[in-house]
Amino acid sequence: MVCDGENAEETPMIPVETFRGKKVALFGLGGSGMATAEALRAGGATPIVWDDAEKAVAKAREAGFEARDLRALDWRELSALILSPGVPLTHPKPHWSVDLARAAGVEVIGDVELFCRERHRLTPDAPFVAITGTNGKSTTTALIAHILKSAGYDAQLGGNIGTPILALAPPAAGRFHVIELSSYQIDLTPSLDPTIGLLLNLSPDHLDRHGTMEHYASVKERLVKAADAAIIGVDDGFCEAIAVRLDHVGKPIVRISLKETLGAGIHVRGREIFAWRGHGRKLADLTGIGSLRGDHNAQNAAAAVAACLKLGLSEAEIQAGLASFPGLAHRMEEVGRVGKALLVNDSKATNADSTEKALASFEKGIFWILGGKPKAGGIAMLAPYFPRVAKAYLIGEASDEFAATLEGKVAYAQCGTLDKALEAAARDTKDADFAEPVILLSPSCASFDQFPNFEIRGQRFREFAEKLPGFQAR
Length: 474
Hints:
50% of the residues are buried. Helices cover 34% and strands 22% of the residues. It is globular and about 70 Å long. It is built from 15 helices and 21 strands. Helix 5 packs across helix 11. Strands 7-8-6-9-10-11-12-13-14 form a nine-stranded mixed sheet, sandwiched between helices. It starts with 22 loop residues before the first strand and ends with a strand. The chain has three domains: 12-109, Rossmann fold, CATH 3.40.50; 120-324, UDP-N-acetylmuramoyl-L-alanine:D-glutamate ligase (3-Layer(aba) Sandwich), CATH 3.40.1190.10; 333-473, Protein-Tyrosine Phosphatase, Chain A, CATH 3.90.190. Strand 2, helix 2 (54-62) and strand 3 form a beta-alpha-beta unit. It is an alpha/beta fold and 474 residues long.
C-alpha cells in the first residue's frame, strides 16, 4: 500500500544548512551527486550542477535543478565546488572543474565534508565511525552497523557502501553513523574527525589516481590521524608505520593483527579473537559463522569487535551480532544448499587476488565456477590452492586461457554459461566423496562479456540456484 500526505514516511536526508543562501557548483551527478544536490537545496543553497553525461544532466533538470556547464559560470559568485569522488582531484591531472575552482580561490570538497560540517553544527558529539583500507572496508562497515542494530541501536550505514551519506538520517545524540570511506572521499574531506577511525590494511591500489603508494597511504592516514581513537591493522608495513607515527603524537590506538601476538591490542588466533595486554582474554569466537569465513574476514571481525567495544557494547552483544551477520551480497555469500553442497556466491571476486581469499576459506571439496572477461595475470597465482579444487567449471571469454592453466592440475569442464556450469556442478556434487562440498562462484574475472556487472552476475547465480532440484535457501 502506498501512503501520501502527512502519514507518508519521509525519505531520510541531511539538509546542508552550512551553505544556506549561497551558490555552489556541483560536478558529478551519479547517486551521491544527486543526493548531494537534494541536500544542498533542502538546506537553502543554490546548487548549479553539471556532468559530462547528457542523460545525467537531463535527469537533474527534470528534478528542477539548475544545470549549466560550469565553464560558463562566474566563479567569483560561488562558495564551493562539490566534486564527485569519482572525478580526479590531483592525478593523473586535476579535472578541469578543479582547475577553475582553484584559479578562483574556491574550495573543492565532497559530500562527506558536507556531512562533517552538519555534524559539527548539529551534534558535534554524535558517534561517527569511519572505515577505510584497501580491502575489507565494506564487510567491516556492514558488520559494525549490524552489531549495533542487533543490540538495539540506531545505526546509519552508508558512504562508499550503499546509501550516499547525505541520504541518511541527520546526526543526533545516540544515532551512530557507520561510514565506509574511499581514499577519494577522504581526499575531499578536510574536516574529517570521526569518533573512531579504522584503517584495515594497505596495498597498492588506485595509483593512477594517487600517483604513488606513499601518497595513497598518506591520504588513508588522514582518517585515523583525525579520529578521536584509531583502530589499525598492522600486518603490512605501511599501516605499521602509520601506527608508530600516531603513537609518537599520543593518539589512542588499538592495533589489530593476525600474524603476531601483540603486547597490547587485538590478536586473532584461528577463529578466536583475543585482547592482549601481557596476557590473552578471549573477546569473540568466529567458529561456525559461515559469513565470516577466512583470515581476511577474521581481520574484518577483529576490527569490528574493537570498534564496538570502544562504542560501549558488551562482549555478549558483540558475539550475538557476529553470529547473526548475514554477510554482504556477492562476497562469500551463502546462498543455500542443494543436496549436501553449500552454494557460495563470490561474484565480487573479479580478480585472482580476491578469489585467493575464497579458495583459502575451504580446505577441500571445492567445485569452482570461474571465468568471464579475463584480467592480466590470469589465475596462475592460485596454483597453491588447486589441490583444494575437486573440479572447475569454466565460463565466458577466459575459458580457453584458464583451461590451459588448469590442464593436468585440476579436472575441469568448459561450460560456456553460468547456468550450465551450475547445473553441472550440482550434478557432480551429488556423488562427491566430501562431507560438505562447496559450489563456489568466484570468477577471477570481470563480468562484462556476459553480464553488465558483478552484481547482476551474482543475482543470476542465485536465480539459477533457486531452480535447482532440491534447493534449500540459507
